[in-house]
């Protein structure tokens, strides 16, 4: 049996510094937006501030999770470490985003038919400032969004914030030009729906990891074919490939080598070649492989 790993930890660790900067920017601007949202009586501004509050909470959770994920387990009971903390943080982000969406929609509906004096000047100014903060944050998180689930969650939050800031500016202009506060409510509803859609997208990715699905873009048949092509391997069964956390793909498999030499050197070569195939062709750097000489029918099933 062979156990190989060469990963450098969760992908989010490479982007933790930028995540911290974005957290500071968003937290500072949330206070500004909340204050001016209350002063301007703008639901669109308050809804965007509510989303900013969700960002502050989820970014803080993401930072805490990336710290927890690298801690050494001292209990002896977490054989996989605490890497899944990042995935749980992303799941928490989904719940917060959905909560904000529900609040915005309910508040918008409650305003229908009521007269509200919306001050458009602060709306437009704060909306533009919020958009600038979001653009800077997107630039900082862009590289990590394609590598880490927790950074992707933060990135999607900021994308939704940017859309919200645009909505606030548009609402302010429309209310100023038409004199109707109805536009403030309409934009708030649109922001709520948009945030909910982004939350669902992220939720599907989180559930795929927790459900131990095959990593995105990986073809299991191709993995089996490449392992079977390793010199000395006659067949492959009990293959399982999943994502432990972003940037950390894991695999286990039994390699049937009935026709190969059973000497230690030959078996070591089979293990080394198989691990090399998984690492170089399929980005699996953490694999537990077992070489056996079984030719029984039950050994010919790829999965359970």
TrEMBL record:
One matching Pfam family: ZT_dimer
Annotated TM spans: 21-43, 49-66, 87-106, 118-141, 153-175, 181-201
Major subcellular location class: membrane
Cation efflux protein transmembrane domain residues: 20-210
Molecular function, one GO term: zinc ion transmembrane transporter activity
Domain Cation efflux protein cytoplasmic: 215-293
GO cellular component, one term: plasma membrane
Family assignment from sequence similarity: Belongs to the cation diffusion facilitator (CDF) transporter (TC 2.A.4) family. SLC30A subfamily.
PANTHER family with a match to the protein in the record: CATION EFFLUX PROTEIN/ ZINC TRANSPORTER, RE54080P-RELATED
Protein name (record): Cation transporter
Organism: Aeromicrobium erythreum
């Amino acid at each position: 049996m062979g156990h190989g790993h060469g990963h450098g930890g969760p992908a989010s660790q490479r982007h933790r510094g930028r995540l911290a900067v974005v957290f500071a920017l968003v937290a500072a601007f949330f206070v500004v937006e909340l204050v001016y949202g209350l002063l301007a009586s703008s639901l669109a501004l308050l809804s965007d501030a509510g989303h900013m509050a969700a960002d502050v909470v989820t970014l803080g959770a993401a930072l805490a999770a990336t710290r927890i994920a690298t801690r050494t387990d001292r209990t002896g009971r977490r054989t996989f470490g605490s890497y899944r903390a990042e995935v749980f943080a992303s799941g928490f982000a989904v719940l917060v985003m959905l909560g904000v969406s529900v609040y915005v929609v309910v508040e918008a509906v409650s305003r229908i038919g009521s007269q509200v004096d919306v001050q458009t000047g602060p709306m437009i100014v704060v909306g533009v400032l919020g958009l600038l903060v979001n653009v800077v944050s997107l630039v900082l998180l862009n590289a990590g969004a394609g590598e880490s689930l927790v950074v992707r969650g933060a990135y999607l939050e900021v994308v939704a914030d940017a859309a919200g800031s645009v909505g606030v500016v548009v609402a302010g202009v429309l209310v100023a030009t038409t004199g109707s506060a109805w536009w403030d409510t309409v934009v708030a509803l649109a922001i709520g729906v948009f945030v909910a859609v982004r939350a669902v997208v992220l939720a599907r990715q989180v559930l795929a990891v927790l459900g131990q699905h095959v990593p995105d873009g990986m073809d299991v048949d191709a993995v089996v074919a490449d392992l079977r092509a390793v010199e000395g391997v006659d067949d492959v069964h009990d293959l399982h490939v999943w994502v432990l956390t972003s940037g950390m793909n894991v695999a286990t498999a039994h390699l049937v080598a009935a026709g190969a030499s059973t000497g230690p050197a030959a078996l070591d070569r089979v293990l080394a070649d198989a691990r090399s195939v998984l690492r170089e062709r399929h980005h699996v750097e953490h694999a537990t492989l077992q070489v056996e000489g079984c030719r029984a029918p039950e050994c010919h099933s790829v999965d359970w």
